[in-house]
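batch job 7 of whatever, protein = EamA domain-containing protein
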Amino acid sequence: MMGKELHDRKWRALTLVALGAMLITNQRAPAQVKSGNFMSYDFYIGTGATLLEITLSGAVSVYFERVLKGTTTPHTVWDRNIQLAVMSGITFVPISLAETRGKWIFANLGWVSMSVAFLGALGGILVALCVRYTDAVMKCLATCASIVLTTVLGAVWLGAPVDFVIGVGSTIVIVSIL
């Protein structure tokens, strides 16, 4: 889509990132799936949906990079974010008003929910700037680094389990980023 080829180094990094992410997420599989008891296909449906989401996210990242860096587009990152915000508002404000039955949309949100929403919006702006000044591959690597950071912080602050396979997956992701 961008009219450029990826060097072997970037293909190796993307392959290693995918391998590392699969190792990290494989540890979250339910015990019946790991033991070979296939009574429920929920894990496989979830894995398939995740792979579809990752594929679509990559395609959208490349398309967004093309839109931002296209020579015929005089718009900045901020112009594109305002366009996205307006279209999101047109789409989701009526839905929110229907669900809240005309009440103030943010009436039931506490300060933690508002903070998380603000951080999500800030993350969107950072992703847009990342794509604008680097490329979609670097955005992918940054996203995988955030997965590793989330895993580490979850283990430190929340006592989430970390075993050898998660450690190997995290190491692979870090090496591929470097």
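notes: The radius of gyration is 20 Å.
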